[in-house]
Amino acid sequence: MAGTVAYQIDGCVVPATGFELTATDVEEIAPAIRAILRDDSGLSEAFEALQDLPRTEFAVTTLQRVLEPPSEFAEWRVGEALAEHHLSNSRDCTFPWADSRSARNPNSISGGVDLIGFHSGDRVRFVFVEVKTSHHQSWPPSVVTSRSEGLRGQLSGLNDSDDRSRWAIKYLTMNSINKPWFSIHRQAMQTYLADAKDVMLFGVLVHVTTANMKDLEALTNRLSELPATKTAIELIGLYIEADVLASLVEGSIAVETAA
User: Fold this and answer.
1) Does residue 115 surpass a pLDDT of 60?
2) Is 253 in contact with 71 (CB distance < 8 Å)?
């Protein structure tokens, strides 16, 4: 797990932990983050499946251009990659199918759940993750508190089993057929069919500033007041300076000034 714990909010139903990531931390995890952003595994599989088609050097170059990753990444996508890496390495989560594989525009926003995968513990469950990236020097930023588009509203909606969770499961199901991870998907589906509330939710804030527990303190308390179900919710804060965030990618980051 990369980063140093800056704060912990315990003693409530929904815990929260903040991590500070230094330049040294990022240098260690940057190759893995870049592989997620570029979807190296998916591109490798695609090229291997088609490499017998080109008959000339020009055709090989054309195929490489079709499959090459973008040279610029939206800031929110870098935040999602950072969140995916953190949860995969510290919270027993697996995210087998990259959302970017279904996007005609690599920086288009789907409007659904940011990340969906599996959480492995005493049973396999679906895990839904909402990620917000902000460089506003306020604690908390509006991407946390907004009732509709913020972590507050989105996690509350997922806890109420809104349509986005159903869409996300359908999306993962349709892409799981004949995949190596189909068996773990079946286990998660079995858990879900027994109780649709038996899922794991993570809210991740990637804040390009110094750590402050005020970011997640009020949200932790509010979400802890929700009616008790089998749904488990956890909040994560990842804190990183702007120049360190930029070093995560081999290319440029398109910053959303309103974030």
Assistant:
1) yes
2) no
